[in-house]
Amino acid sequence: MGPMELIFLLLVLALFMLPTFLMMRGQRKRQAQVEQLQASIVPGDRVVNVSGFHGTVVSTGEDTLEVELAPGTVVTMERAGVMRRVEPAAPLADDHPQQLTDEQ
């Protein structure tokens, strides 16, 4: 095998391995973000679980959370089941609209 064939073979291998490496790196970053989120959940946080249910965290354990889905309805779920934290909505810039006046 000559040097040109060896270089070509290495380039082809790099062409297939580079996208795989980049995808794995991105997945590791996302996984670390999810783990950090799940570890930082405290009572009072509004969360959405992987099934899409919204609720408020009532209490936390090492691996579980007590989440209130509706008034009086509390479920126990795994921390791993939390998809995201719901951030409170930012107040609108104009919370107090001015009254319209009749100027004629």
Automatic annotation (TrEMBL):
Task: Tell me, in one coarse class, where this protein mainly resides.
Answer: membrane
Instruction: Show the InterPro entries listed in the entry.
Output: Preprotein_translocase_YajC
**Location in the cell:** Cell membrane
Q: Which domain of life is it from?
A: Bacteria
**Any one of the GO CC terms:** plasma membrane
Q: Which UniProt keywords apply?
A: Cell membrane, Membrane, Protein transport, Translocation, Transmembrane, Transmembrane helix, Transport
Which Pfam families does the record cross-reference, listed alphabetically?
Answer: YajC (PF02699)
Which Gene Ontology biological process is one annotated for this entry?
protein transport
Q: Which residues cross the membrane?
A: 6-24
Query: How does the protein associate with the membrane?
Result: Single-pass membrane protein
Q: Family, per the entry?
A: Belongs to the YajC family.
Q: What is this protein called?
A: Preprotein translocase subunit YajC
Q: Give the species.
A: Corynebacterium sanguinis
Classification of source organism: Bacteria, Bacillati, Actinomycetota, Actinomycetes, Mycobacteriales
Q: Which gene encodes it?
A: yajC
